[in-house]
């Protein structure tokens, strides 16, 4: 066991973790469990209950009862919910070191990165939405009916029981992306964390109870794709909020048809990062490195396709390659590490497979390697690939690892066409000191987020989501409650 671990973390890992259903910690009905693994060491951390469709049924019954009018949750005022959300944010901050260690153990990312990124933003998300709980306003709308008088207005009401299904790249944060807007609007939730990284969502479940979230309002059901599928098919679920692969997003859209549950999807990406000759080249190189390798490359908005104008191509490639080669890859608990391992053996094999495939297709590894780093742990050296064409798998597919391709271009029209030549549309970026070029090209890129002369600049106040096959709906910001509410129109005749 790692000597740096906090007593609270040791204690959390000392017994099998259970499901949270109706305010109680329970085993899966069929007793099934699975191991969650430390990707730096490949050692088992703890066994976790694996929810089956029977457990999904129990959670749906609990979430429905908690939602119904007359329940303690339904009787809470918007102000009560606001204060509750703020309290949870403070509790997360109070346990930030513990969350950061659990996240680093389960996902592999650096403890420091988890604390300053994932955990701090998760806490802020609760506080940001605490403000919205009291501001979910409707409008009053005039009607024109000769000889009669009406008062018509809209109300925003919760959708009902929401299933949140989330991935492993930002485990706590993605859980909060679903839970926070859902409960802000008065919904109840069943959260299905990713099988690779269930721990912080389970710890959050404990804090939610401690903060005073009523039983059944948030249920946490770890499991694999079968657990997620059981939620998506369940007719007692009113909405699914999903983040993950485009492949599974399509399955969810199809499976949701049974009761036409609402669906919001945040799916894959393959973001183009375009550097013009007239860019601030040093800033652009730093942005390409951050955009390419942030979170071990396991981030849907990473700039994995670099397009560099011919005049600065060699300079940018040399700069990014040097920075990639200098990144120290190692255990997330080692303070000298600059990048941790990938999340799982499956992801490790997938990413190394893509790099090896690119070499076989004739591409050049300007930095990095198709070989694993070390003989234990799922480490990959950050990789920059040149000599790529648009048809290679490494260029078309979302790889989700520290792998960036670089292709030269000559004209704006040419690069816009290449950048948009993808099924994805999550993020894109432009580097140019010409304000006209930056904004014009930004407008021409088909993506939900466009960064100009920056990358990964972000705030919980900003909406995010995808064009094309990168998804349906937008999360966070002032738009982030739309998908968690139904709009009701009320018409009263004034007699
Ligand atoms: P995935 O999409 O299979 O898993 C995401 C979540 O969906 C997990 O909680 C999983 O248990 C659940 N799930 C799987 N099958 C399901 C089904 N049929 N019905 C309902 N829920 C289901 O992603 P996976 O397998 O972890 O990663 C594969 C690739 O997907 C990655 O290499 C990456 O390219 C992409 N991905 C994209 C993410 C993003 O943020 N856009 C996040 C994670 C993965
Ligand atoms: Mg999968």
Automatic annotation (TrEMBL):
GO terms for molecular function: oxidoreductase activity, acting on the aldehyde or oxo group of donors, NAD or NADP as acceptor. Pfam families: Aldedh. The active site is at residue 266. It comes from the Bacteria. Keywords: Oxidoreductase. InterPro entries: Ald_DH/histidinol_DH (IPR016161), Ald_DH_C (IPR016163), Ald_DH_CS_CYS (IPR016160), Ald_DH_CS_GLU (IPR029510), Ald_DH_N (IPR016162), Aldehyde_DH_dom (IPR015590). Residues 25-490 form the Aldehyde dehydrogenase domain. Coiled coil: none annotated. Belongs to the aldehyde dehydrogenase family. This is Phenylacetaldehyde dehydrogenase. The lineage of its organism: Bacteria, Bacillati, Actinomycetota, Actinomycetes, Micromonosporales.
